[in-house]
Amino acid sequence: MPPLADVVRSWPVQLGLVVAMVLVGAALMDLALRAFTGQLRRPVLRPPVLRLRAPRRRPTRARSAVGNAVPEPRRRPLQAVALDLRRLGREIALVSAGTPAAHRAGLQAAYDDVLVEAAAALEVGHRLRGCAPGEERELERLRLVTALVDAGLVLSPPGARG
Q1: Helix, strand, or coil (residue 55)
Q2: Angle between helical axes of 78-93 and 101-122 (0-180°, round to 10)
Q3: CB contact set of 13 (below 8 Å; sequence gap of 6+)
Q4: Residue 40 has what pLDDT?
Q5: Helical segments of 1-151, H only
Q6: How far is 148 from 146, CA to CA, in rounded Å?
Q7: pLDDT tens digit string along 48-90?
Q8: Residue 120 backbone dihedrals phi, psi, to 5 degrees
Q9: Which residues, given as ranges, of the chain have pLDDT below 70?
Q10: Among 7, 14, 80, 96, fewest CB within 10 Å belongs to which?
Q11: In whole angstroms, how far apart are CA 20 and each of 24, 48, 61, 68?
Q12: Can you tell me the distance from the alpha carbon of 70 to that of 130, in angstroms, rounded to the nearest whole number?
């Protein structure tokens, strides 16, 4: 059997050592990057929960004739919806040319959400959610605003012309 120094100096053993060092280095680098970016976290150990009996159900206040039907969620008052529509419409009108497009898109999305809420409150039909962004959506938005005003929603502040 050759001495250990001769075995270590042979090229297959040296190649194996280099490959092993590269793999260990890559694993350590991955571990360090995960720790640095916050992706490396210790698992949270929680004690097992033992349930001896079924949980109690709270009695519900309103039960319908059907049985356990969930009551319809409460809507905001129509005055609050109209106030939000006026405020968002004013903000959209005052957006300057240097404002980022994401800010304008966010304002427009909020305005559309409140328009849909007002349409649901006044039971006005619309296709705003189904329209693609662009000219078609803008026309549907204008049609919906006109329909809401015709249904009695006041969108202009008191004393404003128009």
Answers
A1: coil
A2: 150
A3: 7
A4: 72
A5: 4-9, 11-37, 78-93, 101-122, 135-150
A6: 5
A7: 665 566 656 666 655 555 556 666 678 889 999 999 999 999 9
A8: -70, -40
A9: 1, 41-72, 157-162
A10: 96
A11: 6, 41, 68, 64
A12: 27
Classify residue 159 by its DSSP letter. T
Structure tokens at 107: 């304002």
Q: Which two tokens stand for residue 151?
A: 């249904």
Q: Which pLDDT belongs to residue 139? A: 93
Distance of CA 18 to the CA centre of its chain: 48
The residues pairing with 64 across neighbouring beta strands, listed in sequence order, are: 67
* Backbone φ, ψ for residue 39 (5° rounding): -80, -15
What pLDDT does 6 receive?
77
* 109, HSE (Cβ side, Cα atoms, 13 Å): 6
Size (the chain), residues: 162
The SS3 assignment for 46 reads coil
Task: Give the Cα separation of 146 and 130 in Å (integer).
Answer: 18
**Measured distance CA(33)–CA(37) in Å, rounded:** 6
